[in-house]
Amino acid sequence: MTLMELKESTKDVDLIIPSDKEYKYLVRKLKDLGYERKTRTGWTKDQGFIFDLFVGKSIFTTTLLESTLEQGNNMPLKEFSHIYLGILNYYDLIISKIFRATLIDIDDCLTLFRAKHKEIDYEKLKSRFYETSSYDISDDKHKRNFEDFLTKLRKEGFKI
């Protein structure tokens, strides 16, 4: 959200590392730089930003349908010699936040939808959400969260 300039600040940076081998390499480098594990997925140095690292197609507790490296599943931000930095596509970003469903996550989804609704295909969001949710043990809870999100959008006047 911050990298899309939709939010002024963030408490952490979430990174999806495509492979276990690359994840292990990154963890070794972070340790060499003095980073320490703060949470199950989070790394920090001197109480600064927390970098949450996820492997494969998962972010938080959400397993995405496809790799974030597949075309259309990310928005390019910066490419270095050995690192590609992209932003999760709108659909998977909304889905992963609704799966977690904290108040901040839902507010982030509303902010994103307000700002980018012309670029978001509602039918694609809906079908992608329900398919992703169908693979999760908390399917019913996620569906309720999604319906609550849609209700909020309708109250704001979005025709969905």
In short:
The chain has two domains: 12-88, no CATH class; 90-155, no CATH class.
How many domain modules? 2
Strand content: 15-25%
- End-to-end separation: 23 Å
Question: Which series of helices and strands comes N to C?
Answer: EHEEEEEEEHHHH
- Taken from the alpha-carbon principal axes, the silhouette is globular
- Strand order, main sheet: write it out: 1-4-3-2
Oligomer kind? single chain
Question: What class, by secondary structure content?
Answer: alpha+beta
Number of strands: 8
**Main pleated-sheet profile:** 4 strands, mixed
Average pLDDT, rounded to a whole number, is: 92
Radius of gyration: 16 Å
Helix content: 40-55%
Determine the number of helices (DSSP H or I, runs of at least 4 residues).
Answer: 5
Q: Segments where pLDDT lies below 50 for 5+ residues?
A: none
Q: Can you offer a commentary on this structure?
A:
The chain is α+β, with helices and mostly antiparallel strands and 160 residues long. It folds into two domains: 12-88, no CATH class; 90-155, no CATH class. Helices cover 42% and strands 20% of the residues. The chain has a four-stranded mixed beta sheet with strand order 1-4-3-2, with helices on one face. A two-stranded antiparallel sheet has the order 5-6. The longest helix is centred in the last third of the chain and has 17 residues, at 139-155.
